[in-house]
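testing teh design pipeline on a random one, pls ignore if ur not involved
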């Protein structure tokens, strides 16, 4: 994967055209926890 001004513009255009349910900005352990599917994050009933 290349990172450049050109690919940034292409990626931003693709994001604008794609409907999202959830967008996580950032990373690390907090972002990983947020990205977990809800069934995996919920305790058993």
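output:
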């Amino acid at each position: 994967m290349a990172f450049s001004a050109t690919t940034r513009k292409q990626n931003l255009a693709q994001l604008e055209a794609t409907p999202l349910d959830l967008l996580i900005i950032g990373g690390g352990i907090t972002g990983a926890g947020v990205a977990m599917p809800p069934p995996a994050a919920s305790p058993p009933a």
